[in-house]
Amino acid sequence: MGITVEEILTPDINRPARYLGNELGAVHKPWEEAEVRWVLTYPEIYEVGASNLGHIILYNILNCQPRQLCDRAYLPAPDLAAKLRSTQTPLFAVENRRPLTDFDIIGFSLSYELGATNILEMLDLAGIPLTWKDRAEFDISEIPLIFAGGQTATSNPEPYADFLDFVDLGDGEELLPEIGLVIEEGKAAGLSREALLLDLAQIPGVYVPQFYDMTEDGSVKPNRPDVPKRILRRVATPMPAYAIGLVPYIQTVHDRLKIEVRRGCTRGCRFCQPGMLTRPARDVAPEKVVEAIEEGMRATGYNEFSLLSLSCSDYLALPAVGMEIKNRLKDQNISLSLPSQRVDRFDENIANILGGNRQSGLTFAPEAGTQRMRDIVNKGLTNEELLRGVKTAFEQGWEKVKLYFMIGLPGETDADVLGIAETVRWLQQECRAKGRKTLKFNITVSNFTPKPHTPFQWHSVSTSEFKRKQELLKQVFGQIRGVKVNYTDVRISAMEDFVGRGDRRLSAVVRRAWELGAGMDAWMESLDRAFAAWENAIASSGLTWKYRQVENGEWNVMAGVEELQVGRLKVESSDQPANLQPANLQPTNLGQKATLREQPSNLGQKATLREQPSTLQPSTLQPSTLQPSTLQPSTLNALDAPLPWDHIDTGIDKNWLKEDLQKALDAATVPDCSFDGCSHCGVCGIDFGHNVVIDPPQIPQFAGHFKPNTNKDQRLRVWFGKLGDMTLLGHLDLASLFERAVRRASLPIRYSGGFRANARIMIANALPLGASSSGEIVEFELTEKMPVEEFRERLVSELPIEIPVYGVEAVDLKEPAGTQLLEKAEYLIRVEAMSSVSWEEWQGWIEAIKGSKEIWWERFTKSGKKQWVNLCDRLFEFEVMEPQKPKDGEEEVAESGVVLQYVGSCLNDGTMLRPEHIIYMLDQVAQQEFRLLHVHRQRLILRN
Q1: Confidence (pLDDT) at 624
Q2: Does 341 score more than 70 pLDDT?
Q3: Before 280, cis peptide (omega within 30)?
Q4: Is the Cβ–Cβ distance between 423 and 389 less than 8 Å?
Q5: Which of 340, 384, 434, 458 has the smallest number of Cβ neighbours within 10 A?
């Protein structure tokens, strides 16, 4: 069956502009001239995928390659997915609007363990067989090659191996163009699918699962001699210039320019997989960052930019770069945002570049609530540093700070868990000032899930313990004002752990979970339904026993050190007064005292909590009080067992991970090798390079925050249209489009005063989604006068062709705005009767409506109050248009329905005669059903 993309993308689809492929910066290369045709897909909805920096960079790089083109595709929202299936229309790439099967290669970015079900959803919607075995007999001209990259695919591709022809490991900036060249040569030589994959397997960084088998001990070995035993992770230098492009017309998750300043992190946090998988650290030259931001802000029209890195604060040039850009763009109402940053490096310079009229949020990640736990995970953060950073934020005007913590970390006791609340309370008490409100906190408490290629990859967590520890925190945080706490659902964490550290047997689970409806949208809509789908999938695959290990905590590498802590705390607590023992903190649903730790099942007894959290300062269990601990022989044997991801060469020495785990047992920290001595992790060398740390330039003097220019020297009224694909753009997105166009055109727009300075751009009236127009009005207030024609030329040069400008005129500053003068609107609407109707009948109905005194319409106010409106009072002109006859030489095109022209009320107080009102009036007069096919607003009419 199948219908065209244009027929699929209609106003009944939620936010149809997601799928248009017409954004600023979208690349449309000639299809016939390309030898290799890519589709890069992000298996999330558009708002997430289109704002992903890696997706944008690789898209731009591939489209710079000769003889290659790259289109994009995203996970359709449920409404579009249902429509594709019901019409048997295959999933399409947004630029060329061709089915995905027309392309040579499709790449998925897999950055999350549970995202694999979305890959299967997209393959199914595209009509592509789900497994490499089912695709093996097809040439790539029939079925594209399917591959995945991203952090999750790089760390452990085995749970997804059945679905992928190959995996690209690590950075893709250099790897993907190499893959493209091999595919181009293979196509020219007429290679079979298997032969082409064998050629790809010779490229460092390409893993082809079908050439490897899982052995009985769980390891993965080659099944043929002509592929490498271990596959190298690729490393590339950041390329900020390729981050510029793709400005979506709808609001996305990260709706700003994003520039990478540093790739890789060597802090050595023992729970952090990205930090291990992206070594070595590589700084971007400060001048390149400044150049990319200046060029990017001019080219995109964004009013915000973000500097990205795993640890932005470790980019030593951050204060200088941020201040330089802040000073250069001071008069343009530009704001800077940073991801979660090191609180110990947050100072007044960073506060100045983040602050101002558009002050962004502030996020720190202490990770743990006690010093001992921060040492175990090698966070490298003291209580004093934490307080200094938060206090600086408070003194610089922030009223709310976001903090990230984790529970379930190896070696964690209940004292450590309660230390989270204790730390927050202490920070609140220390951050007080006369005349200021108490500092508020948004707290996120996530559940630690061990990740491959980290020192904690051997540790197991218990979901039952997660629930118990969350209850502990809920009781304590319930007594602290000004704190909002979000907890990660333990079921999501359990599935992340189960899939993330799984082997090839998990492919069957992933597939069955998808069949049962466990897509990412299901997690958002119904956690219960999604979790049930995963549990049923696990059961049907015979792996329930393995999942129960995740639920119960399979084993605990910290058991030895915990025994020492329990004994020490029992001795220390014997002298404490009984009134210091916090009986009020015990979890109500357990019927027993709160336990000190996550107790391994073989210890047989519970230790009671004997430490009272201080109300003034967070408790610290100093590493010096712990006796040295060593891994037991049984533990060492387990550490030597093969892991499903051992064949992935990330550069990190597995023996180094074992040594670092031992240091964690001793609560010993390891310095950051970017700034201190080498930690001998194994990365630095020929294959992966070395740390590149650039000395910071001098920090420029702060020139002050943006002060909006509120002078109003000129107001210009613009008549414009909304045609073609742009009819599917919503009103708020249209307003954003105009603001960005004004910025790119460097027009002297006026900003409102106040905390949030907004550009003074006023669209006279919102147009219904899907309606076209040739008579819209928008007004611009300028801070300085400029020739009308120059304004028009500069504005038109930055607008899409389907937003034509018909006229511009200067308006007296004392005249009311167009939004106030708006009185009427003229519409052309195409209407279809549900039964056969003559021309005379249409004319009769129109005359009957014009002659009516009353046709009542029931409406409800915002407060829910019922009102009756006489639609006849809002109708001023009404005609039926005669069908246009084709000109000589033209073929007659049959169009259903007739075109009705009417003029009706159009006031911004809600007094309007909408096209659906006309349909209702026809229903009442003709006593039959009508369907509205299309709406075109001919013009807006202002009072004299």
Answers
A1: 32
A2: yes
A3: yes
A4: no
A5: 434
Residue 517 near residue 124, CB atoms below 8 Å? no
Taking each helix axis from N to C end, the angle separating 527-540 and 544-552, rounded to the nearest 10 degrees, works out to 130
Q: Is the separation of the CB atoms in 594 and 586 below 8 Å?
A: yes
Confidence at residue 463, expressed as pLDDT on a 0 to 100 scale: 86
Q: What are residue 219's phi and psi, to 5 degrees?
A: -80, 165
pLDDT at 828 over 50: yes
The contacts of residue 348 (CB under 8 Å, 6+ apart) are 392, 396
The greatest distance separating any two alpha carbons of the chain, rounded to the nearest whole angstrom, comes to 106
pLDDT tens digits for range 740-782: 999 999 999 999 876 678 899 999 999 999 999 999 999 999 9
Other CB atoms within a 10 A radius of the CB of residue 148 amount to 27
Is the pLDDT assigned to residue 885 strictly greater than 60? no
Cα 714 to chain center, whole Å?
A: 40
Q: Nearest 5°: phi and psi at 831?
A: -125, 140
Q: Give the closest residue to 748 by CA, choosing from 778, 786, 788.
A: 786
- First and final CA of the chain: distance in angstroms? 54
Tokens 């070696």 belong to which residue?
Answer: 411
Sheet holding 335-337, edge to edge: 257-260, 304-308, 335-337
Phi first, then psi: give them for residue 789, nearest 5 degrees: -65, -35
- Mean pLDDT for all residues in the chain: 87
**Alpha-carbon gap, residue 862 to 520, rounded angstroms:** 34
Q: Can you tell me the distance from the alpha carbon of 334 to that of 705, in angstroms, rounded to the nearest whole number? A: 10
Mean local confidence (pLDDT), 694-708 = 88
**In the prediction, which pLDDT does 547 show?**
73
| Cα 108 to Cα 72: distance, rounded to the nearest angstrom | 10
d(C-alpha 56, C-alpha 820), whole Å: 42
- Average pLDDT rounded to a whole number, residues 838-853: 94
558: pLDDT strictly greater than 80:
no
User: In angstroms, rounded to a whole number, what is the distance separating the alpha carbons of residues 383 and 385?
Assistant: 5
- The DSSP bridge partners found for residue 826 are 903, 939
